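Predicting holo structure, pyridoxal-5'-phosphate bound.
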Amino acid sequence: MKTTESFSTKCVHSGEIKDSEGAPHTPIYNTTTFAFDSTEALLDVVDGRKPGNLYTRYGLNPSIRSLEEKLAALESAPSALAFCSGMAAESALFLSLGRKGIVCLADAYGGTLDLLKNNLGALGIPSYFVSGSDEEGLLQALEKKPDIVFFETPTNPSLEILDIKKISEISHRYGALCVVDNTFATPVNQNPLLLGADIVVHSATKYLGGHSDITAGAIMTSSELAAEISFWRKNLGQMLSPETASLLARSIRSLDLRVRHQNDSAMQIAAKLSRHPKIKKVFYPGLPDSQGHEIAKTQMRGFGGMMSVELNANPKSTVAFVDSLKIFKIAPSLGGAESLVTQPVTTTHHGLSPEELSRRGINGSMVRLSIGFESPDDLFRDLEQALEAV
Ligand SMILES: *Cc1c(COP(=O)(O)O)cnc(C)c1O
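Done. C-alpha cells:
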C-alpha cells in the first residue's frame, strides 16, 4: 500500500490478499499447517530462502500475514507482529529486547506493572519506575543502562500527556529504545513512530478490536527489531488464531470511522461535564485547560474516547453515581461499542496503598469513562441523571 494513501483508505485496503475466488478481503485460512509439492519447496521456506506459508504458530499463514500488513500500515511501520493479547506482545517485547532493564514512565496498565515488577523481577530483569514529569529521575534511571524506556500517553486513569519526541531523543542519547503503548490514543489520533519512538505496542483488545469481543495484541516497529521479537513470540507460543486475525482485520476496516466518532462524542461530553457543578475536575487532553493540552495538540490529531472525572462527592456517593448509570456499563476495559464506567480504586488500581494512590493523584471520587458509539446526547443525559444521586 502506498504511504501517500490517507489513513481511512489504509484501514480498508492495506494488507488485503487478492485471492483467485474474487473475495474483496482476505479469507480465513483456517489451517494450522501448509502442504508443499516437494521436499525442496518445503526446505526453501523452512530455511528462509523463499517467503511462504508453513505453520500458523510461526505467523506463516495468509490470514495472519494479511493482518500484520494492515497493522503495520496503521502506524506507518515497516513491520508488525500480531499476538494473542496485549500482555503477550509486552512480554515478548521485554524478554527479547529488554533484558538489561526497563524504565517505566508515569502510570501504566496494571498488568504491565505486575509483569515488570513480579514476572520480569523474578527473572532478575530490573525495572525503574519514574513519574511522568520527572526528567531528572529519567536521566538517573538511564545511567543504569536499561534497554528500554516504556510509557503510555495518554496515561490511565489521569490522561496525563507525555512528550513522545522529547522522551525519544533523551532515550536515544543513552542508547535505549523508546517504546510507546499507544492503546489509549489509537493510530487514528497518534503515531509514535513518526515522532521518534522505536516501537509501538497495542492491546488490540481495546480500540483496534473495537467491539469488546476479541483479545489480541500488536507490535509495530522496524523489520530488524520485529525479527528479534518474532523469534520469542514463536517459541513462547503467543500467536493468535486465524479466526481472531480475520475478526481483527474486519474491525480495523472501520477503525477510523469509529474512533473519530468517539473523539467527537468524548470532546462534547468532557466540555459539558467540566461545567457541571457536581464535577470537580475533568481529565481529558482535549480540554484547553487540561495538564497536557499543549503537548497533546502537537502530537495528537484527536484526543480519544477516554476520560476521567473527579466528583464533588465522597467515595460512597461516587459509588452511588456509578451504580445509577443506565447506559454506561460497569466493567473494566475500554474502546468498544458500548460505553463503560470504572472506578480506578475498584479495578485498575485496586489494592494500591493510600500513599501510592495519592502519589498517582487517584482517589475514591474518581471515575473513568470509555465513550462508545451511542449518541453523545443520550450519554450526557445518562451522566446527568446519575449525578442527581450524588
Ligand atoms: C488492556 C491493556 C493492556 C493489556 O492488554 P490485553 O489485551 O488485556 O492483554 C496493555 N496496555 C493497556 C494500555 C491496556 O489498556
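The mean pLDDT is 96.
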